[in-house]
Recover the amino acids of this structure.
C-alpha cells in the first residue's frame, strides 16, 4: 500500500453518493442501514410554490432530489445538528439520514418524503483491483457468505 492510497475500504453509501466517488463498489454489507428523508415542522408545505431553503450535510444528494421534482431550492450546508435548522428558522426543511426517526420525533419534525436508502459498502481502489484481484475477490466471497449467513439467522432477504 502506498501512503494515502487504500486498496479496500468500508464506507457508507451516503458518502459514496455525496462525494460522487469513483471507487468500485463491490458489496453491500447490509449493516448501518438507514435512509435519507425530507423532514420539517408540521407547518411546512412541501407543495408550496415559494422557493424553499433546505438545510443538509448532503448538498449534492439534496440538489439531485429537488431537481428530480423540478423544484428550485436554496441549499444551506449545515454541519452538526441538522434537525435544529427548521426549529430556529435557518431552513424551511432538512434532508438528513435517519435510522429510527427518534431524533426527528424528539424535535417535533415530520417526514415528508423518503429518499435513498443507505448502508455500508465494500469499495476497492481501481488499480488495486487490477493488481490484487484474486485476494480481493476472495475477501468479497467470504464477506458475501457472512452477510448471507447473518441475514439467514435474522430471517432477512439478501439484496
Amino acid at each position: 500500500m502506498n501512503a494515502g492510497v487504500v486498496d479496500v475500504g468500508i464506507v457508507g453509501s451516503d458518502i459514496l453518493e455525496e462525494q460522487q466517488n469513483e471507487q468500485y463498489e463491490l458489496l453491500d454489507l447490509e449493516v448501518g442501514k438507514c435512509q435519507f428523508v425530507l423532514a420539517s415542522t408540521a407547518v411546512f408545505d412541501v407543495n408550496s410554490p415559494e422557493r424553499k431553503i433546505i438545510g443538509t450535510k448532503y448538498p449534492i444528494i439534496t440538489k439531485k432530489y429537488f431537481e428530480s421534482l423540478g423544484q428550485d431550492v436554496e441549499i444551506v450546508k449545515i454541519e452538526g445538528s441538522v434537525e435544529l435548522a427548521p426549529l430556529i428558522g435557518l431552513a424551511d426543511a432538512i434532508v438528513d439520514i435517519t435510522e429510527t426517526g427518534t431524533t426527528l420525533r424528539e424535535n417535533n419534525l415530520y417526514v415528508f418524503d423518503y429518499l435513498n436508502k443507505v448502508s455500508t459498502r465494500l469499495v476497492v481502489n481501481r488499480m488495486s483491483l487490477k493488481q490484487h484481484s484474486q485476494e480481493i475477490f476472495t475477501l468479497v466471497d467470504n464477506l458475501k457468505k457472512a452477510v448471507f449467513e447473518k441475514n439467514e439467522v435474522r430471517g432477512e432477504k439478501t439484496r
About this structure: The longest strand covers residues 110-118. The chain has a mean pLDDT of 91. The CA atoms of residues 50 and 73 lie 9 Å apart. The first helix runs from residue 13 to 18.
